Amino acid sequence: QVAAIIGKLDGEQVVGLCLVVVTETPQTVGKSQDEIDQAMQAALSKEFWQSTYKSQGGENVVISTVGARDASGRKVNFVFSEFTSKGKDGKGQRMTAHEEVHALPGRMHDIGCLARTERFAQAAADFDAILKSYSPLSGLVAQAPSVPTPNSVLTLYAQAGFGGAARVL
């Protein structure tokens, strides 16, 4: 399920976007975080990512980095990739992506940030702030307000627990 889409604009041009997808994983309920971390690190190999991007229509896929970082006592798996994506007009666009996977008992959060390769550097700092500040919360349900508001605001923090630099979107 798509949980959020965050875009970066330069005027009216989209520089890049991050997509948050949350998937229920009932097969991991009852597993320890360490068991999940080990299984994910084994599964999310360079070959896995290569195959995943190709199966989603990516061509000339290059996986530059695959790894994991520590976050709040668990591993967050990540990949940096580059691929060609064809639009509705059939023209290919070279894309660069930084994707992270937070696997928890019962749920997986996948945050993928991407931009055209020539614009990725322009969005990289914002992507990094989004990815480093993301912390999945179990059981949290977001709901739209019953009365429409004129503007929506999202505040992202550089560190866990609302710490560090804040970025208002």
Spell out the key features of this protein.
single chain, 169 residues, alpha+beta, 6-stranded antiparallel beta sheet, two-stranded antiparallel sheet, 8 strands, 21% helix, globular
Low-confidence stretches: 140-144
Gyration radius over CA: 17 Å
How many E-type strands?
Answer: 8
* Helix-strand makeup class: alpha+beta
| Approximate strand percentage | over 45%
Q: Portion of residues in helices?
A: 10-25%
Quaternary state of the chains:
single chain
Shape summary = globular
Number of helix segments? 3
Order of helices and strands: EEHHEEEEHEE
Span between termini: 22 Å
Largest sheet strand order: 1-2-6-5-4-3
Main beta-sheet strand count, sense and barrel state: 6 strands, antiparallel
Which whole number gives the mean pLDDT?
87
Description:
The structure is a single chain. This protein has 169 residues and is an alpha+beta fold. The protein has three helices and eight strands; from the N terminus they run E-E-H-H-E-E-E-E-H-E-E. Helices cover 21% and strands 49% of the residues. The strands form two sheets. It has a six-stranded antiparallel β-sheet, with helices on both faces.
Gist of the model:
The chain contains 3 helices and 8 strands; from the N terminus they run E-E-H-H-E-E-E-E-H-E-E. The chain is α+β, with helices and mostly antiparallel strands and 169 residues long.
